[in-house]
Amino acid sequence: MTANATELVVQATGLTKAYKRSVALRGVDIEVAPGEVVGLLGPNGAGKSTLTKVLTGLVRPDGGTARVVGAPAGSITARTRVGYLAELFRFPGWASADEVLILHQRLVGRPVTGEGVAEREQLLAEVGLTHAADTRVETMSKGMQQRLGLAQALIGDPAVLLLDEPTSALDPAGRHTVREVLSRARDRGIGVLLNTHLLGEVELLADRVVLIDAGQVVTAGSVSDLTAGHGVTIETDDGTVERAGVTRDEVPGIVAELVASGREIYAVVPRRSTLEDLYLSLVGDRETQR
Amino acid sequence: MTEIFVIARLALQEAVRRRVLLVVAVLTLASAVLYFIGCLSLKHHVGGFLATQNIDPIVPATLLGLASFGTLFLGSVLSVFLTAGAVRGDADRGLVQPLVVRPVGRGAYLAGRALAALVISATYVLVVSIGATVMTRLFFAELPPAAWQAIPPLVLGVCVVTVVTLLVSCLLSTVATGISVLMAYGAGLVAGLLGEIGHTLGANTLSSIADGVSYALPFEAMYRDALNKLSPAGPLGQLVQLGPLGGARSGGIGLWIYSIGYMVACGALATWVFRKSDL
Fold it and tell me: What pTM did the predictor assign?
């Protein structure tokens, strides 16, 4: 990792973007630190892909500022340190997996022989495509192409990965592979912005979650913070006591109160909500109405 | 600069792997055989007549005029097919995004795509034109005096078509780009032919329209310039000047300067449009 550890790899403030018929972003703020996985959640049309594209420079924002590894998003400096996997991407069908990686090595100025060969072999092994190095893209399944896309995004020592639905076409084993790849990337200090609909993936992987809807950030925070503090279940000699809506800090007081009233406590189980509960409570069923 | 060659290499690889070049080579060979048979037949049937009438240059000039039309047309079709989807079409298919998020300027991407298409289509026109001229010379003793000089305008003409197609591809989908450029190409040829008729008959309006079209679409002016170089002197040269599909008109060095400036302007405009585009 070459980026300053204190420097945010993604820092966007007040991003706005309107297309001809819709407003995609209405003042979005987002940050990703080195070695942090941030899950970007939201219903279809919330502005997630537009936000990711703004950070890559594919889409020009109407307002606000976006910096990637300290440089303006879309600048050559920023693009040198970004790995990107688009939601709807395609590689040349006639090219083999190895040739796709060679192309991207050339584009970022990496060697393609010697250590370049070793880099490609390692990346293909990481995403489980060692056996497919010579397989043409057009004969690959969508899942294989998605894993190749992830390998491609990792070329060139990126400081940040911007991934738009990277596991949408993968089977459970493929998702597990991608989670492992992203975990290793995080361990190497790479910041990851993971745009996905798969809440389970985010719960397993993300350090923080940003939920956006209608182009605005609805809530943001760590997964544990967002899913904590929704109640406690206490088993006593007189039956089960349910207390909804209490925070973690309130639990000892409740237990002390019960003990003072003569109850015997057998178990205290904090009730945690899931990301799905949070998502549905904040976004509701608006997605189905779109 | 390196990234331009990387993109150009990618486009050239695609042309090879998709067998575009193989198909072009095979069909060009078939066309060459037909041209050979045509030359042989003409030599056999009109050779004696030509000798007696002392109008030797007419037949090779007409043949080369036809070859010029065919070569520029096929070179332009090749160029259009190679570049029609370069920007908007490939972006719609998700092919452009993974490339331009790399430290590759959008101008460099366009330059790479243009370079590949220019190399293929210009080489095609050059090789086929030289082949047609050599073959014609094998059968007919007297070529038009400026027969070899007709080749460079054709090469520049196909380059203009390539750059125009690239510009349109920044704005329209693949199919719309192909249709619009080829229709403009056809309209240019028709305008050139009408202009020549107008010039011959003294109809200034038709001549003015043809001149205007030549400025708007200089590949057409380049074709007319090439035809002009193939036209023999004297009243029989009028036959060549009128056809087979377009009127001859000398362009001179001014046309070259204008056409090169036109291509630079189209390239700059394409880069500006592409840079402003959301992908």
Answer: 0.83
